[in-house]
Write a structure and sequence with these properties.
Layout (H helix, E strand, L loop, with lengths): L3 H4 L14 H11 L13 H134 L5 H14 L1
Helix pairs in contact: 3-4
Length: about 200
């Protein structure tokens, strides 16, 4: 026959504490979360959160004050310096352009005055040369006229002398034909003088 002690079921040595009942577990969980809500909204956690916020604020302040702000200020100062330099260069270029414009206007006015003076001098020189040529031509013409008048006067005198001789010869021929005698030189001269005075 079998031993009755061996056929009996073994009793667990762990006891009730080894595997808690479901009800006990639910009650324990409810006790842990009995307060409800998020932990960061509980007053007992605010001290640590404020300390963390202060540390983060201090770190951000140091980063902004020591790192970001100097860099931004350097960038802004550099940009302002570049803008100021560009404005100064633009002012200098504008001043140089204005000065060059004034110099060009002065040179243009001087060139215009010089050209007008040259034109006036050329016109005056041309007028003087024309007047000189005209005076020379008039002098030549006057000399030719004087020579022509002298020649005409000589021809007139020669013609008058020839007329006197012809008249004397004609009178001699007429007297000799009418009287049959030759007239004397004194009579012919007197007759010629009378005819010349009557003419």
């Amino acid at each position: 026959m079998a031993d009755p002690t061996q056929s009996a079921p073994a009793v667990s040595t762990h006891g009730a504490g080894a595997s808690p009942a479901p009800g006990a577990t639910h009650e324990a969980s409810g006790a842990e979360h009995g307060s409800g809500g998020l932990p960061q909204f509980e007053f007992q956690h605010w001290g640590g959160q404020i300390a963390y916020l202060l540390v983060l604020f201090a770190i951000l302040y140091v980063l902004i004050a020591r790192v970001f702000t100097p860099r931004m200020r350097a960038v802004i100062d550099e940009r302002a310096s570049r803008i100021a330099g560009a404005l100064e260069a633009a002012r200098q270029v504008q001043a140089e352009a204005l000065e060059q414009s004034r110099a060009a206007a002065a040179e243009l006015a001087e060139a215009r005055a010089r050209s007008q003076a040259l034109a006036f001098d050329a016109r005056a020189k041309a007028n003087a040369e024309a007047a000189e040529r005209s005076a020379a031509e008039e002098a030549k013409l006057a000399a030719h006229l004087a020579q022509a008048e002298t020649r005409i006067q000589g021809l007139r005198d020669s013609a008058m002398a020839s007329v006197g001789a012809v008249a004397s010869d004609t009178a001699q021929a007429i007297v000799q034909k009418l009287t049959g005698k030759a007239a004397s030189a004194a009579d012919l001269k007197a007759a010629t003088a009378l005819s010349g005075g009557a003419a």
